[in-house]
Amino acid sequence: MRYDCIIIGSGPTGLSAAINLKTYNKNFLWFGNANLSEKVEKAELVNNYPGLCGVSGKELLAAFLEHKEKLGLEITDTLSTQFVCDCSKEKVSRALSTISKKDLDDIINDGESIEVKCQFCNKAYTFEIDELKEIRKG
Ligand SMILES: [Zn+2]
Prior knowledge:
- 42% of the residues lie in helices and 12% in strands.
- By secondary structure, the protein is of the alpha+beta class.
- The two termini are 37 Å apart.
- The model has no long low-confidence stretch (mean pLDDT 91).
- The site of zinc ion has 6 residues, from loops.
């Protein structure tokens, strides 16, 4: 299943993200505490929340939980996730084609294949001199 967004955290910001994503019918995963926020609950007095000056943490948390329930928002903290990078030799090749011709010439003149690693998943792609010459042609 594909998601538009993943929310990590169930404090005020995480809840706000969940509310907005739900409002815009986005498909998302929400990782956090089923009780939303211990920090909020423990606050004696909250004076820095728009529209709710002077409430206790418990009152604010109750309002958060009510809002969460009304929208049917669920924290999906038990799903396992997997990071998948969609890099490919073709994409790395396109990235190499943005290097200046002079720099590519320097690499080609060194006479050895090069290895380029994806910055996201660390997968290594090897380019032989002939491939580098093709990239240089554009
Ligand atoms: Zn990658």
